[in-house]
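BUG-640 | component: ligand-complex export | severity: low

The export step for iron/sulfur cluster jobs runs without errors, but we want the raw record kept on the ticket for reference. Input record follows.
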Amino acid sequence: MQSVFTGPVYVVRDNIDTDQIISAQYLNLVPTIQEEYKKLGSYALAGLPDSLYPTRYVKEGQMESNYPIVIGGRNFGCGSSREHAPIALGAAKCRIVLAESFARIFFRNCVATGELYPCECADRLCDVLKTGDVVTVDLDKATVTVKETGKVYSFKALGDVRPVVDAGGLFNYARKTGMMPAST
Amino acid sequence: MTLTEKILARASGKATVQAGDNVWVSADILMTHDVCGPGTIGVFKREFGKTAKVWDKNKIVIIPDHYIFTADSLSNRNVDILRDFVREQGLPYFYDVIDDPNGQWKFDTTKGLLNRQYGSRYAGVCHTALPQKGHTRPGEILFGTDSHTCMAGAFNEFATGIGNTDAGFVMGAGKLLLKVPPTMHFRLEGKMQPGVMAKDIILHCIGEIGFDGATYRAMQFDGEGARHLSIDDRMTVANMAIEAGGKNGIFEFDEQTRAFVDYRCKLNGTKADYQPVERDADEKFIYEMVVDLSKLEPTVACHPDPGQRKLAKDMSTVKLDRAYVGSCTGGKTSDFLEFARVLNGKRVMIDTFGVPATPEIVHDLQTARWGEKTVWQILVDAGVQMTENAGCSACLGGPVDTFGRMNKPLVCISATNRNFPGRMGHKESKVFLASPATVAASALTGHVTDPREYLS
Ligand code: SF4
């Protein structure tokens, strides 16, 4: 399992709710239909107001983002229970969200779908980093290293959640660990 | 144990549980709708197999309500996906938009947005429809693929929102692994003054603890003040537990609960036996707050989140473009009655939209008379655009042709429950949350207005 991820970050602030992660108007897309899954990715974080976030997470006309790591503040993923939110980020090829704190259902949906690793970092990285900065996240060591400054921050280790995301979500994990029969 | 702990202990077959325990909980009802249902069904089929059967067909309730009255073809298709699944599985509790079990749903734009376009089974907004159709019972576990599922905590049950993958699991297995949340205690005292509504109670509490103040926690509302609240009021309060990040909100069981639930289960022929939970002497709370209802004033949550609390009386400088009454939280019969009480005989100054949560509420308003006129007519005469197409409508924006949706950066005062950026449409628009009475007073002036100005 990959445990080290390097790439540019996309930085957002506090209270990024699921409407901003995937706007309600795109909830007509069904995540389990492959082409609609991909489309959800193209709309990831498109609900952010342009006035606050002039750089888009996914460039106009593209299906995936150039930012594999999203940095957030407090209460990331608050609002609705729509699983379309972690799915849109995952479909856009986001692998990790590092936030000061997460809303409960979003966190759970990240793990259940296995779309991405939700990591909690007590340091407010959203105040330190700006969109485009390159970092290396090491899940084993639970650290983030900023390329330019060499500064290292640690985050809360994922613990029990890690193997579930590694396996690709709740069902794969349940099969792998014998909680569910291997094939149905 | 607290009310939440007692229900979770029972549902996991344990004598006791405490906050932090991970337990497998059996579901009594799984509810889904048109936005998350197709994905949940997709997960269920992918994981349990194409020919798999749901764990218990009497425990699944499917309520299309979100993107119904729109010409968007994918949204119309999603209702058809639900219908196909219901037919294949033989599910009895499907509140379809149309009456033909083999038909296809297509919204007819030529009939306009105001006139009724649904059949006899359609039930409207899921959280308001669930109790009306006899699917909420004290002591039970309700999972729903919608964050405001917590509304059913008004009936002394554990109700919480889950994602599609978890719901797909419940659909096949009938249970879910949950962490027992610590309980926050809100003891309500006294009675609300005229002009103050249940919405003000919950906006007050969220303002107190913050929009994430209840994350991973249960919110228990009890005390003398809670017993005075009507069932509708309790629903409003429990509905918005999620707006403080809460896992669930819960009320005590009393005669009002019993009367409501028994009547609804009997009316609809749904399961009528249940076992409420009562308070123990040894409850452990992580937080305690006493709310004196008699001291509350009309309250507003300002853009951009439900924790931005202010008093309506201090906000007269905030100019508005439109007003909206509707949703699970603010579109019940009692909400429209308070709305109408303020508007009666007057005329709104800004675009004002009314969307009853369910067809039953439409019926109530079209039959309740104040003097010569029905309440519905009073609202229409006051200049409110009232639609018979009960549903979620613009509460969550929806497709661009949705009734009441803000397609421009406007400022709206709304009786709904959520006001993050873009919630009701355009991502630069602003939403201020308030009670139906405050929305009404503000619609009359065009700026945020304390409804008590119109009470004398
Ligand atoms: S009315 Fe609004 S809050 Fe209620 S279920 Fe519908 S979209 Fe959600």
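Assignee comment: Attached the raw record above. Residues B 66, 125-127, 146, 148, 327-328, 392, 395-396, 416-417 surround iron/sulfur cluster (CB under 6 Å).
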